[in-house]
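User: Could you check the structure of this?
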Amino acid sequence: MPETATPDNGEISGNGQERQLLQGDLPDIAGILVFCILPDERVVSVNSTLVELLAVRHANRRLVDILSQESAEAFRAVMHRVRATFEPALFTTTLIGAEEKSIEIKGAMTPTKGEGVLCAAQQTEPLAGPAVKEENQVFIPDEPDLIRQKKLEDELRASEEQYRTIFENSGTAMVLIDDDTTILIANAEMERLSGYSREDIEGRMSWTHFISGEDRERMAEFHRLRKIDPSSVPKNFEFAFLRYDGVKTPAFLTISHIPGTTQMIASVQDITERKNAEKALKKSEQESKALLNTIPDLILRMDNKGIILDFKAAPGVPLYLPPEEFLGKSLGEIMPARLRKELEKVIERAFVTQRKQNYFYKLKIDSVMRYFEARILASGEHECIALIRDSTEQRIAQIALHEANEKLCLLSNITRHDILNQVQGLLWYSAELKEQIGYQPELGGLVDNIVRACVTIHHQITFTRDYENMGMTPPEWQRVDSIVQRASATILPANIRLVTGTGDLEIYADVMLERVFYNLMDNAVRYGGPGLSRIVISFQEDGERGVIVVTDDGTGVSPERKEDIFNRGFGSHTGYGLFLVREILGLTQMKIRETGTFNRGARFEIFVPPGKWRRIAGRDGK
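Assistant: Sure, the predicted structure tokens are below.
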């Protein structure tokens, strides 16, 4: 029988309670083994039970000397996890006793501050001794001791399960890294990200295996400095993660020390999608910047009070004031008084309608009168963008063209006046000739042909007078219901009712817009038939464009003539009415078509492009 042994004296760092235990102050409780395992795997007894059980006593016992070969690896895994997580854990292992006898034990393992572990265990079958005897009786440990041990085991198990749940379900790849960069534990996300199994990683692979070559030196230096002063290196940074198949994956690393140990816990997040999004955003920004650089405009970013927040000016764009004198100021502070109110109204209208607003103005810069077109659009609840284009050269060209047109029109008017005088003369001579020849059917028929030719020439010359006025003056905003009322005053008989439902609608059109509605109503009166009693003019929105609808309850247009009616010369009168309508509307990119049902009435739809119609509530529309 082995002699009674005292605890081994091993050097182990710990708190005062652990030192006291190592000094042999822990009373021997029957069946309870208490021992410490140092970082170098030396086994140090805390009570005599382990020594007696193994029947050996020497100060340099090592883990490989007391564990069976089959159970050593599993025991080490538990030990590494306890050291890495600094959390207690349960274990079951096999000791090698006297005469190579296998002894099954189970117990709990807890970490020490010196990176060792303290184990408390008992044999799975009751130990043979020693027991405290009194009057030939063997005393078993008190029931409260067993209850406390069971409670400790349950708490250890619950703590381990909670830790495992968090570790496994964090949503990112996580690893526990030993001081020598060996990965002690890896979760399922690490398996998925790396392509390796957990068995391949844990206890076998270095953390550096997953770091791409270009990042390895930098991260090795971080690892060295982190052991000296953790605050001297970043806890979060990006690097190239190396997968099983050699593919480099952009990753975001979060790494920190576990308190009281030299181990680290790290999480790795795959940021491929974020990197792709950043590349796409950068490309979009570059394209947007290139696009902005090609816009030959002055771009202003303003708030809803007209305060200029930012600007971008293409090279050569003349500025009314230097940037430092207009940035942060409102238009009311920097623009001439005659423009302030109009610009403020345009900005307000842009926010109210949420549509682009066009505004034309002129401004003297460096003693030169320049012409501008401003297009203003709300870009948010409190901000708007203004694109201002210098149209001076275009305006000068328009003025020169207008002057040339005026000269041509003067010549045309003189020529037309002379031709009409000659036509009137032909008509007078024809009447005189017919009177002098008397009743001669053949000669009378020739004279009638001369008269008809003269009348046709008269209509054609009269049409040129209307046609030459098209485009002679710039388009302007015109209130539709006022134009319709003026047009109807000279064409509609009393028995035909006019209904207008356009309200405060204005459209940007040629000054001959009144001629458009005149010809449409004239067409209804001429071809609507005896059943014509009403003409209705209304407006509706079609996305960003507007549609003016002119309907009547007359005969309508047959399907095969819906396109022909807009051709020049088609019809039983002059043949120029609807042709002129389409030409006038086309000057401001408006289009017209007929969509009515034959024998139920005509329906003309006039399509107004975006930006060329607006509502002007509170104005008289003049």
